[in-house]
Each structure stands twice: as C-alpha cells, then as structure tokens.
C-alpha cells in the first residue's frame, strides 16, 4: 500500500510539474516573474500602512521561517505584523514583470502559505488589493507554523490579464478581533496550472464512504478532523436513545449540543481524509440521517431548517436547505443532497436550526440534535431503514425486531426461528430467517418469539 501511495504522489507531482507555469520561487530574482511592489516605484498597488508591520518587517523577500515541512526553499516573501494588526493597511502586492492572460489552461493559481499564528483570514485579490469584486480567495490555514498548499480558482477571470496579486495579511473581521501576538506571514512558490489539485494531494475513492459511529476505526477510516466551529458547541457518541424508531433503532449515534452562542453557520463539520472525486464512476449523493426532537418545535414554528454544506479543497460550496416539518420530528429523517456544484469533496457541515430575521440569518436557541449514518453513494433515494448498529441481542445470536409501516422488520446475524403471535395467542407467522427479513402484516400489537442457539427472546411490537 505504501508503495502505491508513493507512486501516486510521484505521478501527481510529475503531472503538476508538466502542466504548471512557474511565476516565482524567489530563489533567483532573474527567474521570477513576481516582485514585491514598492509604493515609490509602482504607485498605489504597492501601498501599505507601515504601522501594521513591526520595524523592519514590512513585505519583502527574506529567509524561509520553517524548512521542516513541504517547503524547503531558502527564500520566500515575508511580512511580520504587529500584535492585533487591523486589516486596514495590512496590505502588500506582487507585481508581474510580464502580465499573463488567464485561460482554461492556467486558471488555477498555486502557492504555499505559512503563518506563525492562525487567528485571522488572509485574502488574495486579482489586480486588486481589498475590494470584493477583485477578491479571489479568503480563508485561514489549518495549523500554526506549518507551510500549506493553497489553490485559488481563477475561472471567473478567464480572458482577463493578470498584472498583480494583492494581499491582505490579517483580515481580522471575525471575533475575537484582538488578543493576538506578533505574527509572521510567508508566501512562496507561485505557479499557474490547469489542475485544481496541489502537488501533494491525496486522492481517495469515495465509494463506500460510511460513518455510522459504531467504532472509532470506522470513523478514522474516513474522518481527518471533526470541527464543532464554536467553543460552546459540544458533541458525544452515545447509544441510540430512539429504540422504537422504525428507521434507525439501534447502534451508536452522534448527539450534537448546539449552543445559543453559535452563529448560524457553526454546525458539525467533518473534514474527510483526502479529496474525493464526484460524479461519473464516483458517488454523487450525500446522505445524512438526522433526528429532530419534537420539543425543538415551539410557538408558531412549522418546521426546523437544516442545511448541508459540502466543500472542495478550494472552499467552493455545494449547499442545500431542508425543512423537517412539525409532523416529521421525533423520527430519523434521511436528508439527501446531490453534489453537482463541485467536482471534488473534502468536507461536510451539518447546520442545525437555521433561522432568519428579514434577510439575515440569526442565532437560534440552544437545542440538542442527533446525527447518524453519513454515506456518500450513487443512490438518490432517501433511506428508510438503517441496518447497522444491530442490537446487543442480535450480536449475541438473536435478532433486532423493528416496527415499520404495515410490516415487521427482523435483522439477524445468524439463523433464528421466528414465531409471530397476536396478543390473544394465535400464531400467524412462522419461519427460519437470517439477515434482513420484512414481514408484511396488518396494524396491531404482536408478540415475536425468537429462538437461537444462544438463547430465546420475546419482543412486543406495535405495527402502525
């Protein structure tokens, strides 16, 4: 396996090298097509507020602050901010000696970025420094003091000529806006390419992706990181408390405790291991099983809105808003989102109880929600029965008995003898079964007797 992964990395790096158009590595100035703009010679694009940078720490080419990771070069572009640097004046620009027209063959900007601390966003603009119209990237890095690959999609700029890249080092628009120390920011290895994938990307086949919270190994197979996005949100993996459910009656589930302090977008976020291709021979649909307790519905509410947000590694989104109506709460519901706005899948966020005042989203009250059985597959139909998480009795050799609409569903992991009786004692069904069995039956109350080599079991079940 290691040999296959190493080969994949080598081939991907070779592919990237063949397709990329280098702009600057800053090792040899004669080979660079980018240079740090200077206000005295370049005019407005080079302007910055000197008070935003420590003395001698203004934007310039300097020594690589960390050679221990993916970037072992000697030089890069450096900028050292003062503590609590405001966004205004926290600028610099990289000018192209020879402007380049953006086409389909070079529409992805690749670069490496390093920041000693990660409290704030940084921004990149296309022939622009701080206006929304020119901004092509806004985001944070994942770790302190580590070089990371960043890919910027310039598709919206096709047929336009790139003359300079404008940067805002610390776009501290999010709370907390203060309390941060001096920060070193570094940028290196700029290139244009026709590939949206960084050279050290891990491509993963998403066929079979399933997160059911039954074991830590099942989670770790697919999950790189769980992010609750707000320090007041909490979560826990618990035994399924809804054992009478006709959809999902057993196993482990995720309990998400959403705080009233959480913003509308601060839900339960999963960062997947690697990047997965979407569509074609690969999965197209994300299934997410949710349970909304009935007491979440208050006052004049008629339902609870939940948003699924899938993102690729570039930050592009594929979102869909679902409403769980008041007559659907108190049962597991399978939300299915077609992933058709992105071609790679890197993360999924489940946002619970979205509420608006006018056109603006607002914080919703604290509540407890439940999540289970996340799948990525080719099936557009919602699931109506979850078979994982067999009850302890079934694991020991007996069966899980589930009430369904006009049916009794039985899941057994070995041969068991089933006898179904009315409460008056009349035998109405008898069979030996294994695996999943669905018995059509009229509405009513029944006794199901189960005989197996490891014991006997009697279950009372109400069919509705």
Largest sheet: 6 strands, antiparallel
Number of strands: 30
- CATH-level-4 superfamily name of the largest domain: GOLD domain
Number of helices: 4
* Distance between the amino and carboxyl termini: 50 Å
Total discrete domains: 3
Helix percent band:
under 10%
Point out poorly predicted stretches.
1-18, 390-395
Would you summarize the structure shown here?
By secondary structure, this protein is mainly β.
Notable traits:
Jelly Rolls, 6-stranded antiparallel β-sheet, 6-stranded mixed β-sheet, mainly beta, elongated, 3 domains, Immunoglobulin-like, 464 residues
Would you write up a description of this structure?
With 464 residues, this protein is mainly beta. The chain has three domains: 2-193, Jelly Rolls; 203-377, Galactose-binding domain-like (Jelly Rolls, Sandwich), CATH 2.60.120; 392-463, Immunoglobulin-like. 7% of the residues lie in helices and 48% in strands. It has four helices and 30 strands. The chain has helices at 2-19, 39-42, 216-222, 392-395, and strands at residues 21-24, 34-36, 60-63, 75-81, 91-101, 108-115, 121-126, 135-139, 148-153, 161-171, 183-193, 203-204, 209-211, 223-227, 234-239, 252-258, 268-277, 285-291, 303-311, 317-325, 332-338, 344-352, 355-357, 360-362, 367-377, 399-404, 407-422, 427-440, 444-452, 455-463. The strands form six sheets. Strands 1, 3, 4, 6, 9 and 11 form a six-stranded antiparallel beta sheet that branches. A hairpin with a 2-residue loop joins strand 29 and strand 30 (455-463). The longest helix is centred in the N-terminal third of the chain and has 18 residues, at 2-19. The protein is elongated, with a radius of gyration of 28 Å. The two termini are 50 Å apart. Residues 1-18 and 390-395 have low confidence and may be disordered.
